Amino acid sequence: MAFDAKSKMDKTIEGLKNEMNTIRTGRASASLFDKVRVDYYGAKSPLSQVAQISIPEARSVVISPFDKSLITEIEKAILVADLGLNPSNDGKVIRIAIPALTADRRKELVKQAKSVGENYKTTIRNIRRDGNDDLKKQQKAGEITEDQLKKETDDLQKLTDKYIAEIQTVCDAKEKEIMA
Predict the structure, then answer these.
(1) What is the pLDDT at residue 82?
(2) Around 23, how many Cα atoms within 13 Å sit in the side-chain half-sphere?
(3) Are strands 51-57 and 43-46 parallel, antiparallel or unpaired?
(4) Under a CB-based contact definition with an 8 Å cutoff, are residues 82 and 22 in contact?
(5) pLDDT of residue 3
(6) Among 24, 38, 23, which residue's Cα sits nearest to residue 73?
(7) How much is the mean pLDDT over the chain?
């Protein structure tokens, strides 16, 4: 049981790290565009599947579509994604200058990162709750003793505390990165 909870918690941490990568920090990064979906012949496709994203400088991004007819669709998708970026194209590639973050925007991004962190903490707690419910059912069914129930519950709580601390570490690192 605890192994199942551990694997679910590991996946939760991976999800958190992926989501944190999509939050802007004032520096150019290809992961900023992970959530951007482009309308590609009627299907919403990730930007990385329809174009090459390169970072020539710290504050600029160049997006080279594999199909030049997609340039306007890619621009629309970036604007719709509400990343606070203004794409411009020269007919072949899309260039995006990453503006410096204002103090207010940094505070908004820190709030967003904290909110994401809290959501993931809730997910970890839900995994713990499900695990505890599972253990109680096993105890009622006579599969485990009361002592085993207590030990497993304590182990699950320690695991939960460890992952909550890891989430906090990831959130603190992102906050530092945003405020830098």
Answers:
(1) 76
(2) 27
(3) unpaired
(4) no
(5) 64
(6) 38
(7) 88
Task: Find the distance separating the first CA and the last CA of the chain, reported in whole Å.
Answer: 42
What whole-number distance in Å separates Cα of residue 30 and Cα of residue 176? 20
Give strand pairing partners of 60.
57, 97
Q: Please identify which residue in the block is written with the tokens 């939760």.
A: 12
Query: What are the distances in angstroms from CA 37 to CA 14, 59, 82, 96, 159?
Result: 21, 22, 12, 17, 36
Question: What's the pLDDT score for residue 22?
Answer: 79
CATH 3.30.1360.40, the chain: domain bounds: 30-97
Classify burial at 36, counting beta carbons within 10 Å of its beta carbon; exposed 0-12, middle 13-18, buried 19 or more.
Answer: buried
Residue 117 confidence (pLDDT) = 95
pLDDT tens digits for 19-75? Answer: 888 787 777 778 888 888 988 888 888 988 899 999 888 888 899 999 888 888 888
* Domain 1-23+102-179 CATH assignment equals 1.10.132.20: yes
The correct answer on CATH 3.40.50.1480 for the domain covering 30-97 is: no
Token pair recorded at residue 140: 């009622």
Which 8-state DSSP code applies to residue 30? Answer: G
Q: Taking a C-beta distance cutoff of 8 angstroms, is the pair 121, 153 a contact? A: no
pLDDT higher than 60, residue 1: no
Q: Tokens for 117, please give them.
A: 């962190």
- Confidence (pLDDT) at 100: 80
